[in-house]
From TrEMBL:
<dbReference type="InterPro" id="IPR036412">
    <property type="entry name" value="HAD-like_sf"/>
</dbReference>
<dbReference type="Pfam" id="PF02358">
    <property type="entry name" value="Trehalose_PPase"/>
</dbReference>
<keyword id="KW-0479">Metal-binding</keyword>
<keyword id="KW-0378">Hydrolase</keyword>
<dbReference type="GO" id="GO:0004805">
    <property type="term" value="F:trehalose-phosphatase activity"/>
</dbReference>
<dbReference type="InterPro" id="IPR023214">
    <property type="entry name" value="HAD_sf"/>
</dbReference>
<dbReference type="InterPro" id="IPR044651">
    <property type="entry name" value="OTSB-like"/>
</dbReference>
<dbReference type="InterPro" id="IPR003337">
    <property type="entry name" value="Trehalose_PPase"/>
</dbReference>
<comment type="function">
    <text>Removes the phosphate from trehalose 6-phosphate to produce free trehalose.</text>
</comment>
<protein>
    <recommendedName>
        <fullName>Trehalose 6-phosphate phosphatase</fullName>
        <ecNumber>3.1.3.12</ecNumber>
    </recommendedName>
</protein>
<comment type="pathway">
    <text>Glycan biosynthesis; trehalose biosynthesis.</text>
</comment>
<comment type="similarity">
    <text>Belongs to the trehalose phosphatase family.</text>
</comment>
<dbReference type="InterPro" id="IPR006379">
    <property type="entry name" value="HAD-SF_hydro_IIB"/>
</dbReference>
<keyword id="KW-0460">Magnesium</keyword>
Amino acid sequence: MTDPLTVPPVLRGNYAFFFDLDGTLAEIKPHPDQVIIPESIRMALHQLAQQQQGALALISGRSMVELDGLAAPYHFPLAGVHGAERRDIKDQTHIVALPSTLATEVEQWLTAGMATLPGSEIENKGMAFALHYRQAPQHQLAIERLAQDTVARFEGLALQPGKCVVEIKPAGINKGAAITAFMQEAPFRGRLPVFVGDDLTDEAGFDAVNAAGGISVKVGQGNTQAQWRLANVAETHRWVLQLAQQHALTDRREGYESLGRSI
Ligand SMILES: O=P(O)(O)OC[C@H]1O[C@H](O[C@H]2O[C@H](CO)[C@@H](O)[C@H](O)[C@H]2O)[C@H](O)[C@@H](O)[C@@H]1O
C-alpha cells in the first residue's frame, strides 16, 4: 500500500497488542545503547497489558535481555531477534539457536569482513548478527555485499535489512510467525491482533495481522502492507497514552455499571 494512510482509531474492546521497539516505542538514536522508552509510555503499556489480561507483547529485532532492560520494571511477553527468541505469558522461552560451531564461524567471518570498514559495527545476538553502518554510511554497499556473501556461504541463514543495518538471522524466522505463535496461546487467543511497527522487519508482522483480520499500523513514511499509519514515534506515544486512558475509562464505567446492577 502507498500513502496516505490514516491514523488508527483509539480502540476499545478485546485486543492483543504487539509493539515493535526501535522506531516505534523508542526514537532512533545514533547508537543502539542510547535508546530508551519514556517512563510514561512503559507505564501506559503496563496498564494496557493489565486491561487486556496480559495480552500485550514486544516484538523486536533486539535480544530479549535488552528488551527486558528497556521495559523495566515491567515484564512483558517478548519476541526477540525477529522471533528467534520468544517468551510466552508463562515465562517459558522458545529459542531457535544456530549450531554453536556455525555461530562461531559466522562471527569470525563477519569480524574479518568488517575489520576493513572503519566505523561499522557488529552486534552479536547469539543466533543473529546485526551489521550496523549508521556511523559509516559510506560502507553500506560493502556491508550489504558482505551480508549476501555470508548467507550464500553458510547454510540456514537469511538476510533482514533494516534502518542503517543489515541483519543475518536464522532462515524461516520472522515477526509474523512470532505473532501467530502468541495468537495460539492464552491470553492472546480469541482477541483481535494489533501490531505497530516501523521497519521492513515489521512487514511480516503486518501480513500476519492482516490475515487474521486485525489492525496493522506503520509508524513513519514508506510503502507498507499496514492499513493505518502513525506519523512518528511521538504520535505513537500519544496514541498509546490515549489507548491506556480509554481502556481505563471503559473499565471504570463497566465497574460502576456492574456495581449498579448488584445494588
Ligand atoms: O525490531 P526493532 O525493535 O525495531 O529493532 C530493530 C533493530 O534495532 C536496533 O537498531 C536500530 O536502532 C538503533 C537505535 O536507534 C540504531 O542506532 C540502528 O541504526 C538501527 O538499525 C538494534 O540495534 C537491532 O539489534 C535491532 O534488530
